Amino acid sequence: MIAIILAAGKSERLKPLTKDVPKTLLKVNGRAILERIFENIHEFVDKIYIVTGFAAEKIEKELNSLKKRYDKEIITVYNPQYASKNNCYSVLVGLQQLRESPDDILLINGDDVFTREIIEKLLREAKSKPRSILVIDNVKELGEEEMKVLLNNNKIVKISKKIDPKKAFGEFIGISIIRKKDLERVIKALEYISEHHPNLYYEDAYQRMIDQGFVFDYVTTDGAFWNEIDTLEDLFFTERALGKLEKF
């Protein structure tokens, strides 16, 4: 399996912390988000691709240190349109590098902080789930901002922030497995969104596939800790939560 970590975007809501620093390099209890992702996935993947954009040179510098610590091939892919297109284009840029690869792909948002438990459960259940897989938080209380998932007959029928929180099954946490057999279909959907709706998310490409009859499998977090770092409140909450977990 090959991992792709999305780390191209510029975070406005976390300024001044992200004025000159990519969000993925923000430290959570003394360790960069990117380092935490590496720690939780390096044993399970053969290569790690990082899609960079804003302040890419700072990520390259951090990777020099990570390469010494983890015995993995690490490849950076630069997204030249990180400032003008949403993350759908970053995913497209990353996936296009893997068209000739025979491997499945583990796709991770670069601002996700999560426990190893989530990756272990995903990969364990992936052995019996042949389709591409989304990881869904089925416990968290939902609001308007979350990327919510709606089920019908235990099948994902919608993924959107616009779903009524009361009707949603849970939140897509920004971790998915793209099966090799589905890669070209995902790329085609991303190409369409990037060309016609460049400000949308890669989840909108997933939705386009669903609307065309594609079926995603899913795995639930069942309360295992994770959080997306979008605001200072997210950062402080994550530090407090991990501080408690990492004492044991």
Describe this protein's structure.
Helix content is 33%, strand content 25%. By secondary structure, it is α/β, with parallel strands linked by helices. The chain has a single domain (2-224), classed as Spore Coat Polysaccharide Biosynthesis Protein SpsA, Chain A. Strands 1, 4, 5, 6, 8, 9, 10, 11 and 12 form a nine-stranded mixed beta sheet that branches. A two-stranded antiparallel ribbon has the order 2-3. A hairpin with a 2-residue loop joins strand 9 and strand 10. Helix 3 (87-96) runs antiparallel to helix 5 (183-196) and helix 3 (87-96) crosses helix 6. The longest helix has 14 residues, at 56-69. The mean pLDDT is 94.
List keywords for this structure.
7 helices; two-stranded antiparallel sheet; 33% helix; 25% strand; 248 residues; Spore Coat Polysaccharide Biosynthesis Protein SpsA, Chain A; alpha/beta; 13 strands; globular; nine-stranded mixed sheet
Sequence-ordered SSE layout with sheet pairings:
Elements: E1 2-7, E2 27-28, E3 31-32, H1 33-41, E4 47-52, H2 56-69, E5 73-78, H3 87-96, E6 105-109, E7 112-114, H4 116-126, E8 133-137, E9 148-152, E10 155-160, E11 170-178, H5 183-196, H6 202-211, E12 217-220, E13 226-228, H7 232-245
Parallel strand pairs: 1-4, 1-6, 4-5, 8-12
Antiparallel strand pairs: 2-3, 6-11, 7-13, 8-11, 9-10, 9-11
Helix pairs in contact: 3-5, 3-6, 5-6
